[in-house]
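Task: fold both queries, return tokens.
Query 1:
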Amino acid sequence: MLLIAYLFTITATNTKIPSVILLLLLGWGIKQITLFLEFQLPDFSPTLPVLATIGLILIVLEGSMELELNRSNVGLLLKSFIGALVPMAGLSILFAYFFQYLGGYSLRVSLINTIPLFIISSAIAIPSIRHLKPSSRDFLIYESSLSDILGVLFFNFVVINETIDLSSFSDFSLKLVLILVISIVATVGLLVLLKKIKHHIKFVPIILMVILIYSVLKVFHLPALIFILLFGLSLSNLEKFWRSKWVSRFKSDGLTIEIQKFKELTIEGAFLIRALFFILFGYLLETPEILNTDTLQWAALIVLSIFTLRIIQLKLSKLPLDPLLFVAPRGLITILLFITIKPVNQIFYINNSLILQVILLSTLVMTFGLIFTKEEKES
């Protein structure tokens, strides 16, 4: 199955069909074969959150290591930040008020359920845009990575705080400052290890330490994805900081080579975990849930709202609609947050069927949009 997944990946540039769609179909097809042959397999459901978490870490790390920080990117970074924050927050609040009015739920509970629906999935977006020109690709990597981070921040903020007041915001600000300090210290420590370890096995332990630091930060309800993003950006832009007296201590051709090797291993690891996750997710899809007509109209309305607001956002940012409009899929992060919602906070209108349909519809829009996108050339 993983060899087939690799085949999907290397042919995606020519077919323009995102490998994620094919992986989901592969997993779903395997499920139908096992049902037809009456072949019993164990319950893989508990494995999904684990793969989702590790996949999210590696994919954000992979994406951030492909970004270069320079003055010419400041405008693009600002536009991607606005594109990640405004639609996600605006639509989450709008639909939360709607479900509050419709079902009599509290605004907080409604927000907990709507936020996951409006976070762009970097796990689906980043691997699907390899053939786009660098400016479009950079914007989408920034936007999807920031959407993951800001979405998780917003979600955790609402979940943790029973009441939202001044003390909630002061506590949240303190956590942001704390995560920045921890991220800087952890990044420096990992760079020291990357340079000092002489053993022939060095990259896997560092990746495991990244996952461990992320997990510990999550236990204390800190925005751990910020650490992943900063660590990846530090690795990809370390040469720009050589002028700094402290950073220049790391300067060596050997470290540059080690960082390149680490990047290659991260890309390979991200492919492996991503392929396993989406094959397993496809396998766990229930056909009746996908074809549930009771939620299909809601899913269509949500997806229509997403792309309508995206048109307005791109127009105001003076960015081209083609191909940026189509790349706003929902996926891994939506699933990961949805399965963490406690039963007491779940609402009737947002269920497995709605989540699956929103993910599939938004991914299909991206698929057909990229298929019919003309080959881009950088001016």
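Query 1 returned. Query 2:
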Amino acid sequence: MFIRKKRNKSGSVSIQILQKRGRHNKLIRTIGSARKEEEIEQLYQEAYRYLSGYNHQSQFAFLSEHDETVLAFLETLSNDSVRVIGGELVFGALFDTMGFDVVKNPLFRSLVISRIIYQGSKLKVTQYLQRYEHRDISVQRIYRFLDTFHRHYKEQIERIAFEHTKKILGAIHVVFYDMTTLYFEAEDEDDFRKIGFSKDGKFQKPQIMLGLLVGEKGYPIGYELFEGNTFEGHTLIPVLERFQSRFDLDRPIIVADSGLLNKENIRTLQKKGYGYILGARIKKEKESLTQKILALKFDADGDFGELQREDGSRLIVAYSDKRAKKDAHNRQRGLKRLEKRVKSGKLTKEHINARGYNKYLKLNNEINVEIDYQKYEADKAWDGLKGYITNTSLDAKTVMGNYASLWQIEKAFRMSKSDLRIRPIYHFTKRRIEAHISISFVAYAVYKELERLLYKYRAPFGIKTAREIVQTMYQIDITLPDAGIQKSLLLKMNEEQRMLLDIVRAESG
């Protein structure tokens, strides 16, 4: 007989015991089903105990003296003898290799690893450590650590992350910057947590702003926190100047979303000698320039043209077949929705504005709202066009390639928010909030490093699968009955587990 994990259509996993009979497997018993990883593991252990008891009764009726001794020893073992060790073997090793072990506090290490493999409140972290690693750490001890961590270690862990990124890239010529909001499970504001524009759609919850600076391919450099109602355009220059002075950066080229590089920021960057690349809002350029944009000839997918702007920067405009199809599809879909609303007769002149596809509305006879189809048709000329503004001397393809890499920082936010679940935040004091973000930053750096190694060694699985594999690596703690010596033994690993461990050890030595 054997144990099977069956994934159901509902998304849950059933733990079943089956028996091989000829060419078929017969279901002997379903232990139960669950969705959460820890509950699935509990059901698996229950199935294992059931199977062990069944085998003991039916299959081991005739044992040798040696077998009886071995079996008697095994029966002294309990679930408390087995603990998950994969987090320490994989993420703990990378934590050390990258240099974060200079923070001589084992609790920091535990919190970083837990943030990667088991996200949740600090109370849930203590439950995880106790249940799976047999470590008793009180939540009060964690809070005391958080109260001092950020003040003592933030600059140190940023320095480690920067040096590691510099080691990987060789030199940092281009940096990517973006902002996101992090909301709290609380309704009250204070001097730090403010109600503001939320990119998460949590407009009624207090939040803070997180500015993240990364190098090429999303490798982390540093971060900064701002009050929740801070305008994101006011954060770029202070962050750059802080890291410029701390790390002696050689005036890297800044790649950012157009919302961050407003006119004031652009003037400041030019004055301080920074190069920049940003997405252009080509439809909102001056009419003299928009006419030149529409006069450009694009004969094939990937064609581009270049124009000069009044401030001396270059405007690169590129055409994409894929983008053209997407633009046309979105515009047609918007028109259908608009036609439906016009037909309902509920639109008034107040709806005639520049928001979305309302720009196609017009007023007829000062009474009736109707669609301006000429304006709709004229918009076709912009299908497939994308603009880039830069003050650098880089060739157009390099500029476009660098801007295309901006998705790496978006990926960094996705990894932090979904994979590491940096949000929502359950802390309420500023120092604990800052410590939580610091720990999450280190967790992202370690997580990103494993992703790099999986790609470097061409592993047949990705980072999310690797994290699942980590949670199935076990160690058994035993006491030899005669000698009374305590030993810890790794349970035999399968092929994926061995491969993952070999990749980490190849890098960490």
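Both queries returned. Flag for query 2: The radius of gyration is 29 Å.
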